[in-house]
Amino acid sequence: MSIIQTSGRRQADFVVPSTVAVIIWLVGLAVIGPWPVGVFYDDGIYLSLARALAEGHGLRYLNLPENLAGVRYPPLYPALLALIWKIAPDRDATVVAAKFVNMFLLGIGGAGFTVVLMRPFGVRPAVAAIAALAGSLAVPVLATASVLFSEPLFFVTLLGAGALAERVARDHTGPGRAFTAGLICALPALVRTVGIALPAGLFVILVLRGRWRDLACAGLGTLILLTPWMAWTARHAPTIPAILQGNYGSYFAWYAEGARVEGGKLIGQVLVRNLAEIVRPFGVFLSPMPTLWVRVPLLLCAAIVSISGLRRLAQSCPVVAVGLLIYLTTILLWPFEPDRFLWGIWPVIVGVYVLGVGSWWPLGAVTRFLPARWLLTAASAISVFAYLRYGTIGFKNQGWEPAQRSVADAMRPALEWVAKHVPPDRLVAGNNDPMYYLYTGRRAIPSSGWSAADYVRPPSGATAIANLEALLDRFHPEVLLVLAPNEPAAFGAKHLLQTRPARLVMIDSLPHGGAVFRPVYPQPR
Question: Contact, 338 vs 327, CB < 8 A?
């Protein structure tokens, strides 16, 4: 028996996808916690942008001084949150409702992916459901969906746009359908910038098939949808101060500046680090033991199985396969930990693995290389056991909560101090700066800068000092809050305390080695 249905008429089965959606919703609702928004930084910025949209300010960072334009974050997810804010114009109500919406979208995505596995690929309903659940209910995926992150919306738009793109790539449906496909395929890029991989995949397939008219129509549709956002970003990106580029500026300008300073070696250094970083979660997921002599062979077998699955994906869904390769290449070259990019499409990663297992299943119709098939099947069985074991331990330990809890606990004393001692119209500087705005009403700036080169090597002490001085000189915050001695701002603060005349004065302490400083500014002449 194979896990792939190779014969027989397959009828649409709505019971299995619906069951998958309900299970995901029930589990998702159970993992939603009481933690504040902003613990993962981007979630706080998303809510700040949403409030700006809901209150008529446009896509702007209300948490920053000067109402700077929100050029870093595409508008669709903030627009969804803004709609929720309009319905429930209260921070806490919006946060709760948005978490419910995220889990609803996660369930829709899981159900949709179940259908994809069942229909184009002929995966048996039970196996398709298990694969969708395994991908959607992975602890890191739940951790991502249980906060105000855009990944669930991103995955749903990818599924819908990908289905239309495959239809256009498969059938000569005319210029109107190609134009619509190009338009719809651009939607994921308006949720997360890396979503541009999907229309790029469509363009590549149309080029390879010599369908130039359809390529022109699809390209026109993509340009029509993306050009307003691109033009708006290009217009407002220069207004973001250089010291805030890493946190709030345009992705492309930030990376380009890093490449200008570091040269071509930056790309190579990022690639080397990300190759190691992208292997790490797979090693944790797929090996029941941390020892290299077990982990390395299992990872090699998993790579072989995944390549087989990718080949199967390319046969039935070439646009998605090419888009996936472009997506993975992009995250390997991007100076940021690739984990979060993986969680946004994790069901697809699991699905590719399942397709690969189906290709190598020893009891299938094809019996060539039977020993190799048995070997890969045994390795896959061990990896599936390890995956389930990891998930079980993660659920037992409520693995989606520790990071939220630790940041919330660290931020609570700082938020209380600001609410008590800083006037509402004054500016503060500190780590997790969006939370100060959301929970005290005070606008805030980060306490350190962030460059592309900082991803491949820690910033030097001189850089930390220069960044802190640049922030103080540009914005003149009322206070600087340092939550822990290992923050980059802590080194800069220590230096500025010792300058003559001193640039900072320590005025209070916070738990766990934190401190509050008051900047000293030169008197105007």
Answer: no
The pLDDT score that the predictor gives to residue 381 is: 85
The phi-psi region of residue 67 (left if phi > 0; otherwise alpha if psi is between -120 and 50; otherwise beta) is left
Q: Strand ranges (DSSP E) for 201-281?
A: none
- Say if strands 514-519 and 504-510 run parallel, antiparallel, or are unpaired: antiparallel
Backbone torsions φ then ψ of 183, nearest 5 degrees:
-65, -50
Partners of 69 in the β-ladder: 60
Instruction: Report the side by side order of strands in the sheet with 479-482.
Output: 444-445, 428-430, 479-482, 514-519, 504-510
Tokens linked to 213: 């008219």
User: Do residues 347 and 110 touch, judged by C-beta distance below 8 A?
Assistant: yes
The residue count for the chain: 525
**How confident is the model at residue 376, as a pLDDT?**
79
pLDDT one-digit tens code per residue, 405-447: 999 999 999 999 999 999 999 999 999 999 999 999 999 999 9
Could you report the per-residue pLDDT of 451-507, keeping only the tens digit for each?
A: 888 888 888 888 889 999 999 999 999 999 999 888 888 889 999 988 888 899 999
* The pair of three-digit structure tokens given for residue 6, joined into one six-digit string: 């190779």
Q: Are residues 444 and 427 in contact, defined by beta-carbon separation less than 8 angstroms? A: yes
Closest CA relative to residue 141, chosen from 403, 391, 344, 396: 344
Q: Which amino acid is at 210?
A: G
127 touches 121 (CB < 8 A): no
Q: Contact 452/262 with Cβ under 8 angstroms?
A: yes
3-class SS of residue 461? helix
Whether 304 contacts 351, CB under 8 Å: no
pLDDT tens profile 297-356: 888 888 888 998 999 999 999 999 999 999 999 999 999 999 889 999 999 999 999 998
Which of 33, 36, 34, 38 lies closest to 48, judged by CA?
Answer: 38
* Alpha helix positions (H), 345-401: 346-360, 370-396
Q: How far apart are alpha carbons 373 and 131 in whole angstroms?
A: 21
Residue 492 carries which side chain, given as an amino acid letter? G
Contact (CB, 8 A) for 200 and 318: no
Cα of first residue to Cα of last residue in the chain, in angstroms, is 86
